[in-house]
Amino acid sequence: MPNINSDALIGRGWKEHYSGFPADLFYAEAGGDSPWATTPHLHINYAIGGTLQSLTYKNTMNQNTYLYNGAHFDNTAINAIGEAAIKAEAQHIQGLV
Length: 97
Prior knowledge:
The chain is of the alpha+beta class. It contains three helices and six strands.
């Protein structure tokens, strides 16, 4: 399972948010200032020790797709992301394996 270094991801433009879980980050292109925004974005949930729990993508229709869940990446879903910067970040997380 990939390990998440939150400081390194924050350096790449990810932002912390507190949804009641102890370790959440989100990434959005310009205009995505909140994980509840309707702009496309990625959301990571990881364990306190850094182990990736899930990676999701929210599209412009406010639908969530799991890109990583249950110790598996969904390559088809990652490749289907239309926003280049968001897709690149999803691929970066995938590369941490």
